[in-house]
Amino acid sequence: MASFQTPKSAKYNLNNSINSPSILKKFGKQTLNNAPGRRVCFDLFNNLKLLLVNYDSNNKDDLIEYNNLICDIRDLATEINDNELIKLLRDARNCVNILNENLTLFVKVILILKWMNRSDDVVKEYRLFLLNVCTAYSYHTQFAMEQLVTCFSHVDSAVCDRVNGMPSQEEERGFLNVHATLEALLKAIPLAKDLLIPILKKKFPYKTNSSYSHLHYIHNLLYIIEYEPSLRKNILSLIINKLVEIDVHIPKDELDRLETNINFDIEDIFSMDVDDGGCIRVGPNKTEEENFSNTLDICLKRIFIYMKTVCHNSNGSLLWDSTKLFYHDLLSIFESEILPTYNSSHIQYVIYYLLSFKTTLAENFSNWLLKKCCDVSSPSTLRQAAAGYLASFLCRAPFITYNVLKNTLFEISTWCNEYINSVDKSVKVVDEELLRWHAVFYSMCQALFYIISFRHQDLMDNKKRRAFKRRPVLLNLCVIVTHYSNISHFAIQNKNIT
Questions:
Q1: What is the reported pLDDT for 456?
Q2: In sequence order, what are the residues at sequence separation of 6 or more whose Cβ sits closer than 8 angstroms to the Cβ of residue 191?
Q3: Quick one: pLDDT at residue 282?
């Protein structure tokens, strides 16, 4: 027999609440009142099942009792001790055969119970109830999965000694309990996998939520990949998509203001010459932009750790086959989520970091961007963005070899010269309409000169390399510079480069 204290009301408006999940939300003292001090007792095997059967048979005399049962469980769930909760869950599991659509509200109020950090016996009983009710009635599966996923952004406010924002040991224990339950559910109901990605998207923390809730959620999403590897690309795409939304909401002038607070620790992240990354130290009174910056910072670092783990074994050696598969996933995500996005500043370093693992990847990515620039079937905006990313990558990545740099410059200059030869040379006036018409050409020229100016020391390192620049047949820079569509006109109007 379980007992706990709750206020009771003799009357309750049942018109909209019995079959509506809104009753699951707490409204303080307005919920049940006027009868304080009444002690509620459950005979968790006999009375509960009888109450549910009577309500399901539309016995109006039992409607209020059923509704009060829902409110009791909802309002005092955190006050029920483990033994009482185990009995409630066990008895609810014994009623699974009658938990049809008419009793959906009862199922939901059981599923929203806080259980993930309870005792192992509570966790076991909750898991058994969830699995039993979902396998018996598939229409309960979506809500059950939503409650599991909601747990992934949990942040214990009592924890004050986090390491890089990561979950505490007790929080991690709770997350592992949720993952074990979710994994068991996906195995019991294979079709539930189709529901998972939309639910993960729906429950993703809003961009203004705390940095810790974002980090914990992403941390758990990456853990899902361990037991559902087929969902890796979809999960990574979702994570990148949400971080892009945060990235574009950080104004560049705010980044400049925070620059003095940036602490670079390249060895902890990746070996690249970055000028706008690092760990942002923020005080207690954070602006929204500072919150965005901190969220992006700690979440990117968690992704870098995941990538390092996936692509390397315990000895630090590169797992080439795994790295290639991961690269193709990230390249597809880069094309769909990052390349079309205007004004992102940091998120591209996710793929830049992966490219630092092996020179072959960097060369392949450079060639891919170059092909995207030259692809006449692609929209002009994407081709321009590809040119910007190509210049940005070749300038900022110290692991780019001289041969990759030289070959890319040669390909860009060849394309520019061929473009010059193909356009109408009778046009003498450079106006705004002409700039728009030849926007891709100007972007390619800008990328060419940007790379040369940024990497000129590498290009002029020795006599052999200086000879490369002096050979007009290779770069033919004079023709590009003196052409009637002079790049300086475009450079004045558009100074941004990704």
A1: 77
A2: 138
A3: 42
Which residues of the chain register pLDDT less than 70?
A: 1-46, 56-61, 252-286, 424-435, 461-475, 483-498
Q: Which two tokens stand for residue 129?
A: 């109830």
- Return the pLDDT at 288: 78
* Nearest residue to 203 (alpha-carbon basis) of 186, 224, 176: 224
Confidence (pLDDT) at 121: 96
pTM for the whole thing?
A: 0.82
CB 355 within 8 A of CB 415: no
Residue 21 in 3-state DSSP? helix
Cα 273 to its chain centre, rounded Å, is 25
Q: Which residues contact 469 (CB under 8 A, 6 or more apart)?
A: 452, 459, 460, 475
Q: What share of the chain is helix, strand, coil (3-state, %, to 5)?
A: 65, 5, 30
CA distances from 98 to 49, 93, 106, 202, 455 (A): 9, 10, 11, 30, 72
Q: For residue 32, give the DSSP letter.
A: S
Q: Where are the extended beta strands (E) located within 247-292?
A: 262-263, 279-280
Please name every residue paired with 263 in a beta bridge, in sequence order, or none if there are none: 279
Do you know the residue count of the chain? 498
- Residue pLDDT, tens place only, 66-109: 888 888 888 877 788 899 899 999 999 999 999 988 899 999 99
Which tokens hold the place of 6?
Answer: 């709750």
The DSSP code for 158 is: T
Burial class of residue 22 (count of CB atoms within 10 Å of its CB; 0-12, 13-18, 19+): exposed
pLDDT at 231: 96
Question: Position of tokens 């370093």?
Answer: 349
Q: Tell me: the pLDDT tens digits for 251-290? A: 766 555 555 554 444 344 344 433 333 333 344 446 778 8
Name the token pair of 199.
């639910």
Give the pLDDT confidence score for residue 18 in this predicted structure.
Answer: 39
H-only helix segments in 19-62: 46-56
**Distance from C-alpha of 206 to C-alpha of 242, rounded to nearest angstrom:** 9
- H helices present in 166-287, as ranges: 169-188, 193-202, 211-227, 232-247, 252-258, 266-269
| DSSP sequence for 401-427 | -HHHHHHHHHHHHHHHHHHHHHS-TT-
Query: What is the rounded distance in angstroms from the CA atom of residue 445 to the CA atom of residue 341?
Result: 22
Measured distance CA(313)–CA(276) in Å, rounded: 30
Whole-number pLDDT of residue 25: 65
